[in-house]
Amino acid sequence: MAGATLLTLLDDIATILDDVAVMSKVAAKKTAGMLSDDLALNAQQVTGFSADRELPVVWAVAKGSLRNKAILVPAALLISAVVPWLILPLLMLGGLFLSFEGFEKVWHKLTHRAESSADEEAKAAKALEQIKDLQAWEARKVKGAIRTDFVLSAEIIVLTLGIVADKVFFTQLATLVVIAVVMTAGVYGVVAAIVKLDDVGLYLSRRKGHSVFRSLLRRVGVTLVSAAPKLMKLLTVIGTIAMFLVGGGILAHGIAPLAALEHHLAEAAAEIATIGSLLSHLLPLLLQIIYGLIAGAIGLIVITLLSRIRAKFRAK
């Protein structure tokens, strides 16, 4: 009798683990679209440090990301069980925050266009010289990256929770944990590789020897060294666009008319000959970026007005 009970228990455990594996695979596919945005945003957030601090900073942000998910996983399960209607408003606040951060960067860039790149570099160098505590400055940068990661992690967790909503609690918990760990390791592993790309190129470019293989390695190294700064600049642009895309996407999916507009335009575009399929995928993305820009602009206006009002009250 005891043996039969044990076998039944083991069979139940095997069934649950099989469900976790299947659900994790499905969730990974569903959240893969977030991976590129997450990667671009986080690679952008951890640039600008000295070579010897790049990997420690990436590791610090990765640990912060795991802490974010350690908070988000039980919080999402609790909210889903007690007040499921609260998940969408919280996500939309996160989308608004990302849109605001992205628009703030764009606005700052537009309002400082008169400055030459040399002036900007001189100002940046002077600012760094004036920073008395580099550790405090680094800590602020890391904190900002972790704050941005929190919103992205929240969307990944909520998307995953939606996939396993009809499963038993253990399957939900295990799937969320698997996705949280895999996504964090994947994103920050690639981010670490990107930020050290120039160092790898420098190492390869200094390889000695006259063989064809070593000559090829040196050429690859020189190419990597020259390409690394351009890649970082590109990631800055992509990361900012990703802020609008993710933020606008969250807002659009939470506002029914906007979601309906995306759907109707995608259907209409799909009927266009030759490029219909491509347009049906691109138009919703473009709309989400526009939504993010508009939301970010509104957010910046509101924050600016509130700051001025608070400053007036303090002056009085």
Q: If you had to describe this structure to a student in words, what would you say it looks like?
A:
It contains 10 helices and no strands. The protein has helices at residues 2-45, 51-82, 87-111, 117-130, 134-163, 169-195, 197-205, 212-254, 256-270, 276-315. The longest helix is centred in the first third of the chain and has 44 residues, at 2-45. The protein is globular. The chain starts with a helix and ends with a helix. Mean pLDDT is 75; it is low at 1-14 and 27-33.
Kindly state the percentage of residues in helix: over 70%
Name the structural class: mainly alpha
Number of strands: 0
Rg (CA only):
24 Å
The low-pLDDT segments are: 1-14, 27-33
Tell me the distance between the termini: 81 Å
Mean pLDDT across all residues, rounded? Answer: 75
Using brief descriptors, characterize the structure shown.
mainly alpha, 0% strand, disordered N terminus
Quickly describe the structure.
The chain has 316 residues and is mainly α.
